[in-house]
Sequence to fold (225 residues):
Amino acid sequence: MAEDRKQTVTDKIITKNAGLGIPQSGGRLIAFEGIDGTGKSTQITLLAGVLRQQGYEVVVTCEPTNGGYGQKIRALYKSRDSVSPAAELELFLADRREHIGKLIAPSLTAGKIILTDRYYLSTIAYQGAAGLDPAIIMQKNAFAPPPDLAVIIDLSPEQAVKRIQQGRGEALNSFEHEDYLAKVAEVFRSMKMPYIRWVDGTLAVHDVQRQIMAEVQNILPGIPA
Ligand code: TYD
Fold:
């Protein structure tokens, strides 16, 4: 019941937010979202290659960024207990403001296609899973231009954790524990924004890419299948 109410509030804010923010004059903003270990960065690299071949100017970027706030956030990976969820949220928001001001807004204005590895849906999901209210997190992101498309790569937390461990051969950081990722996945699943498209992350890399291309064609009708 309380969950339903939260979702309704979140949806209202999202509808209100749609169309606000920075004018997108020809550019496109595509966010890749989902829990850790789903293969976002592989898919971003592939999509950037295809779009560049078609003559588009593509900017590949990520959050947390490599700026000052992003570095502070990365320092937290190892000892997340040293900061409250509310303070952590403020760091992600400050990083995003800088990211939008320095890179996303100017690139949109210049008509470029921006592919970002994570954006505000990650904040709703991860900081929501850390105990903050998703509707309030959404409200605090009202400054951010909504993406034209948010691809969420769907994979179970069990499979995701297995991939992280196999791929990196190292211990999980504090954002990556399976029970936390399960909560994060639940918040992602509850999202109803019109620009969200789910793709099946259990498939082979090129099949995931095919699903993503079909979605990208909807917002960039010029590109061939
Ligand atoms: P990740 O994409 O894994 O970055 P990197 O590959 O550079 O380590 O993101 C780092 C973690 O930050 C990831 O577990 C998700 C988390 N995160 C949030 O908790 N909130 C946010 O708003 C964002 C953008 C990321």
About this structure: The chain has one domain: 28-219. The chain is about 55% helix and 10% strand.
